[in-house]
Amino acid sequence: MKKNKFNPVFAAMAVIFLGLILFAPPKASLQVARPDFPGPVDLSGVEIVKDVLNPKIEYALGKLYEIYRTEGADKAREFAERRGIDLDLNGVRVVAESAVRNASLGLFPETSVLKNQILGMGGTVETTYQNLVQSCLPIPALEALTANPLVKYVRLPLKAAPMAEIISEGVAVTGADLWQSMTAYRRTGGTNVCILDAGFSGYKALLGTELPATVTTKSFRADGNLEADVHGAACAEIVHDMAPNANLWLVNFSTDVEHHNAVNYIIEQGAKVVSYSMGWWNAGDGKGTGPICADVEKAEANGILWSSSSGNAAETHWEGTFTDADNNGWLNFASNDEILSWWVPAYTVTGAYVNWDDWGTWNGSVYSGSNQDYDITLYYYQNGAWKVAVSSQNMQTGSQWPTEWVGNWYATFATYWGIGIKKYAATRNCKLEVFAYGNSGLVKYNIPQGSLLIPSDSPSAVAVGASDWRDDSFHSYSSQGPTHDDRVKPDFSAPSGVSTSTYGANASPVMGIGTAVTAPAAFYGTSASAPCMAGALALLLEKTPYSPAQIVKILAARAIDLGDPGADNKFGQGRLSLKKK
After folding, report:
1. Can you give the CATH number for the domain in which 222 is found?
2. Residue partners of 174: CB distance under 8 A and separation at least 6
3. How far apart are CA 280 and CA 433, in angstroms?
4. What is the β-pairing status of strands 385-392 and 247-252?
5. Do 496 and 386 share a structural domain?
6. Cβ(513)–Cβ(164) below 8 Å
7. pLDDT of 343-389, one tens digit each?
8. In a 10 Å sphere around its CB, with 0-12 CB exposed, 13-18 middle and 19+ buried, how is residue 121 labelled?
9. Residue 206: pLDDT over 70
10. Are residues 116 and 31 in the same domain?
11. Which among 25, 260, 403, 436 has the fewest CB atoms less than 10 Å away?
12. Global pTM?
């Protein structure tokens, strides 16, 4: 095994914006028909050599440093583009986690020391939260930063993905129009609603028509770009359609650290409802714990109702216990198949996230971590053979997260892509979970159950799945429960496929996360369902004397039961309805 000059470990915590296309859009004439899945694959004899790098640096960052040191800046930049790493003239965007000694007292003096060290190395500190420091750091300083004993870990930022004068069809379907003209019970003004999202491109042109005449805006992105994405504008339109008197806050973020600060701001501003059409991979154990779920829990403790997309990942998901029938170290997705594959159209960004059930204990701030080490390799199919694209080899030595990530790989031609999972150093067969992205059609051996994205698994979130506004049919991409601790989720379903000014009228879908992105049309996906629920919550807060918890119970009693009788893991309590039964 090759020994490198320094050693990494990593927690593939990064989550990326799906549907991000880095190059020119595809030409239809270059797309090819999808053939059948390739046959079973035996990876016996395929040796992926483990890179043993600095255990205090996430693997992808460790590789970036190594390539910079041995091959130069141009090759390092090329690697960063392949892996979706934020890199500019100021350096690479990272999150440094300091050791925590007085978290119970709310004291984080280590953070100030870390900030000063980063500045002394020529870095730029962008934002902080508790023991986290987000900065742009020169690549040569990566290893030197970890020499400080106060530095626990250096990683890529976690990133969320959007779930992707016109009146949304959901207004009439849910009966919201019947409430809009009622006299407010407790206030003459509307409820304070925050749309927390990736961006609000084009929102100014909607003021006074599709949006209120005035809105409050705040960007927590390091670059301050409120209009970094169009997704949030469409979500805001739906909230306004459902609750026309609501006071809207348009707030955006890009990373986990920015998210934490955004939630604190929302609480300080007195928000009563959050519309959240975002989702995270590899950011928690699926049992409602972890740093993003902690933000939702904090919001609930401050009287905020959090309407959260369940995700659009049902068709991109697989989970199961590690099995190795031929004892070659590779997971068998089927009895004789060791690659999980999916079809990727040309000119599409693809990859996969993997996590497993060895997070350790969550103490409200951190997980105790994993000592079960699995690695993953991304393959593509060409000329009748599987070829290696890239591996993720985070080390799990007791304190790191049980996560791996491979991507953002840019597919220049249409073919199948897939991953293999290798047991590197594990004493038990863990239950693993895979989320692919950039695919068109189901992943092979698809398992839709348990495909919820974070934070819809939180008990503090009102998780919302997608059903069609026309006929209440279930949308097959909509993420399903149960949670990893066997709770029923989502909590409700709500209309999807609705018209907005931003995405247009009903036609082919625009769904965002977990699906290939088509030309703008109607607004499909749980991204459309969550603001529909948020608007309903805001409307009832305005028009009734009931508490947030009571309003959720009222909506559960009025929901249209769909699917299996009672609450189920597709529709939850049923489709959102404000009408009496």
Report:
1. 3.40.50.200
2. 242, 494, 495, 532, 536, 575, 576, 577, 578, 579
3. 14
4. unpaired
5. no
6. yes
7. 999 999 999 999 999 999 999 889 999 999 999 999 999 999 999 99
8. middle
9. yes
10. yes
11. 25
12. 0.88
